[in-house]
From TrEMBL:
Domain CMP/dCMP-type deaminase: 4-121
Cited PROSITE patterns: CYT_DCMP_DEAMINASES_2 (PS51747)
CDD domains: nucleoside_deaminase
Coiled coil: none
Pfam families: dCMP_cyt_deam_1
Source species, domain of life: Bacteria
Official protein name in the record: tRNA(Arg) A34 adenosine deaminase TadA
Length: 144
């Protein structure tokens, strides 16, 4: 359920996205809000500027949270973002331990507004293979 406070933080994420355009960056913005309601960190998309496909604000903040927040704080922290996180950012968010994500535009809505946003082709994946060989470093690492 989206609350009035959630809407206020979403407006901040949208403001961050709008400001990114003035810097020559893509219009995506995010922020983290801690358990006490304080803004912990903010970021916008810098993919073009940094020439880095991973420079999405959601992934930047997930990485920040994983480095800076203890588990108990992370699970009570909310990420607010102007658009629904892509699969790369969703994976990072899960691994970061954050407890909640609230977004303004869905992926479907973004694609309606900008069809090129959904133009990513599927990448073929083959496997699994070489189980006995591949498991050796995994077994070695986790036996320590």
């Amino acid at each position: 359920m989206i609350t009035a406070a959630d809407e206020d933080f979403l407006r901040r994420a949208i403001d961050i996205a709008a400001h990114a355009i003035t810097l020559g960056d893509a219009p995506y913005g995010s922020l983290l809000v801690g358990p006490d309601g304080a803004i912990l960190a903010e970021a916008h998309n810098t993919v073009r500027r940094d020439n880095d496909i991973s420079a999405h604000p959601e992934l930047k903040l997930a990485r920040w949270a994983a480095r800076e927040l203890d588990h108990d704080t992370a699970v009570r922290t909310t990420m607010y973002t102007s658009c629904q996180p892509c699969s790369m950012c969703s994976g990072g968010t899960v691994r970061s331990g954050l407890g909640r994500v609230v977004y303004a535009l869905s992926t479907e809505q973004l694609i309606e507004l900008n069809p090129d946003s959904g133009a990513w082709p599927a990448v073929a994946q083959d496997g699994p293979a070489l189980f006995d060989v591949a498991r050796a470093p995994i077994d070695d690492y986790y036996r320590r």
